[in-house]
Amino acid sequence: MSVLGIKNIGTIVSGDIEKPVIEGSAILVVDGKIQKIGSEDILESVKCDKIIDANGTTVMPGLIDSHVHPVLGDFTPRQNTVGFINSSMHGGVTTMISAGEPHTPGRPKDASGTKALALLGHKSSRNARPGGVKLHGGALILEKGLVEKDFEDLAAEGCWLVGEVGLGSVKDPAEASVMVQWAKKNGFKVMMHTGGTSIPGSSTITAEDVMKTNPDVVSHINGGPTAIPLEEVDKLINDTDLALELVQCGNYKVMKYTVNQAKEKGSLHRIIMGNDSPSGSGIIPLGILRTISYVASESEVSGAEAICFATGNTARTYGLDVGIIAEGKEGDFVILDAPMGSVGDDCVKALEAGDIPGVSMVVIDGEVMFTKSRNTPPPTRKAQII
């Protein structure tokens, strides 16, 4: 049995949009799962293998990148880079969700090939954690020729993601909607490219296209990189209950508009966040933190609420057991504080000031992954193992 204790916590951001900040100064993690949250008394009845002194700083759930385009392992031919997933972990990301593996060299575009690629990506990511991150790979790219049995076969092997509809040869909503029904019937979560073109072969997809196709997630509602018009954002907010994904490489005006409209409509629980990387805009290891910072400083939501977009909201959308600091959930945490020199006096206030916090530690399944981020600015106060 492994036991981790975290004490002297200043603020716990829960990841739950209904209650973003919760009471407590200590967390007990047993065998990778959160067992108790409360005062430091909860650590007195057990013998901890390791204790982290948070030094009055903030503990939040590990961030979830809802939109990544991996290949195999921790390499991307899109930017010819090794270690990009590990680098994102140094920006607080502990879970990634594939939106498809479109950058695979020689990517097969026939039915049997796209099915094989999805299965390979799924099993590869299940058998190995690139950089320690929980990568959910193998998102099926919809190609002409797929039949219902293909979705049944993949589901039987554990596959559960459909990559951005529109990346493959299936682009017409009438054709796509049939495959989406097959996918949902077999337990898949489906995301759909929205807005202007991003890579060669992709196409412009409107709000009406999305509504006819009926995915689970509106991928990059703020563009990847070109966004749909604001009136189409309104349609997706007002006329659907789909998850609305914001990405760092999209349109920032539309990002701000989407968040403010969602708040006005009582729909903040639908906002999730992704990098949409590797992409033409490069690899941004701090992309999720940067997006949280932008939203917290420029829109009408708090820093704690913005964190929930990239944690609990995404976990709920995809049915994951992460992203929330609550008893029974997986013990993935980021310990962080305002960066040195910030006008904010803690992590949340720094985000609301537009700063990127300094990360002290990342914990995945109760295991400390590092004690100094190589990518964020140094925190004003630093957690330490005692």
Characterize the structure shown:
This protein has a six-stranded mixed beta sheet with strand order 3-2-7-18-19-20. A five-stranded mixed beta sheet has the order 5-4-1-6-21, with no helix packed on it. The chain has a five-stranded parallel beta sheet with strand order 13-14-15-16-17, sandwiched between helices. The longest helix has 17 residues, at about 110-125. The protein has about 375 residues and is an alpha/beta fold. α4 (about 175-185) packs across α5 (about 205-215), α5 runs parallel beside α6 (about 230-240) and α6 packs parallel to α7. The two termini are about 20 Å apart. It has eleven helices and 21 strands. The model has no long low-confidence stretch (mean pLDDT about 95). The chain has helices at about 85-90, 110-125, 150-155, 175-185, 205-215, 230-240, 250-265, 285-300, 305-310, 310-320, 345-350; strands at about 5, 10-15, 20, 25-30, 35-40, 50-55, 60, 65-70, 75, 80, 95-100, 135, 160-165, 190, 215-220, 245, 270-275, 335, 360-365, 365-370, 385. α4 (about 175-185) links the parallel β13 (about 160-165) and β14 (about 190). The protein folds into two domains: about 5-60 and about 325-385, Urease, subunit C, domain 1 (Roll); about 65-285, Metal-dependent hydrolases (TIM Barrel, Alpha-Beta Barrel), CATH 3.20.20.
